[in-house]
Amino acid sequence: MSPWPESNWTAAQEFVILGFSGWPQGLRLLLFTFLLPLYLATLAGNLLILGLAIVEPALHTPMYFFLGALSAVEVAYTLVLTPRMLAGFLLPPGGQAVARATCAAQMGLFVALGGSECLLLAAMALDRYLAICRPLSYPQLMTTGLCWCLLASCCAGGSILALGLTTAIFQLPFCRGGLVNHVFCDLPAVLVLACGNRQLQERVLLAACLLLLVLPLALILLSYTRVLVVILGVGGPAGRRKAFNTVASHLTVAVLHYGCATAMYARPLSSRDLEEDKLVSLIYISLTPLLYPAIYTLRNRDVQGALQRAVSGRTPGTVHQADIN
Questions:
Q1: Closest CA relative to residue 227, chosen from 158, 134, 300, 320
Q2: What DSSP character marks residue 266?
Q3: Which pTM value belongs to this model?
Q4: Regarding beta strands 14-17 and 179-180, do their DSSP bridges make them parallel or antiparallel, or are they unpaired?
Q5: How far apart (Å, rounded) are the C-alpha atoms in residues 185 and 3?
Q6: Which of 57, 235, 251, 260 could be a cystine partner for 239, CB 3.0 to 4.6 Å?
Q7: Strand 14-17's sheet: what is its strand order?
Q8: Under DSSP, is residue 103 helix (H, G, I), strand (E, B) or coil?
Q9: Environment class of 63 (CB within 10 Å of its CB; exposed 0-12, middle 13-18, buried 19+)
């Protein structure tokens, strides 16, 4: 329970995102100069992959369908968080005032996109499992209709969870003012401002972490463990190397995504340091979305060939199969 008297509990109509407004102006300008190119490169890389996945017939396969969807999610995720964060580096000290509805919308979009990405990574692991462990029946199993159903389910699951979490948090009264010690309206940073008994909201947040982090990660690890067993047991050295590279890239992204998310959200509020969380957020907002295109596809032979054809205006000839053949 809050030590503040109930007469001081308010339904805050405005929040102030503090960001790094307390830092020296020179350091904030330095961060802006460093992070702006990362932001632009993230948008360019993910939009490039999304565009190639749409227009290139050679990439009209389930694997690149999901990679294109992942890139679309990353673009939306970056647009929701990064522009306001970058603007905060240029504003005078004191933070950015945002309306209650704007704060709730940003939180909801962040959770919806992050949740969709967690589920999408699990769908991609399922696709690789079927492609490598069930190659003969893979075309019949992973149809275009199933791909769209999996994508819709991932988006719906993330959106439903976001609606529930955001509604639960913003139903609480706030007695600590509206100073959000973060670069955006993140769940823990807003929840610590709430009054009264917030144990229910904390339990809901931890349950969401279980659903979006632990269960999908377990599915991913099981899928790729089976895939690695199959890779080591069949095929020639070249085929094993290609398949292993594909699996390694998927696992690298999964470790980055789930590692950051677990470190940030699978902890009780009492053990949090908001200043530390704010610094870590720079990694998962600015760095990991930039790494995904490079890890997944920009070094991939299929994507390189598609990019060369798009630049030269040539039509695809012999289509290289995804790196499992």
A1: 134
A2: S
A3: 0.84
A4: parallel
A5: 24
A6: 235
A7: 96-99, 14-17, 179-180
A8: helix
A9: buried
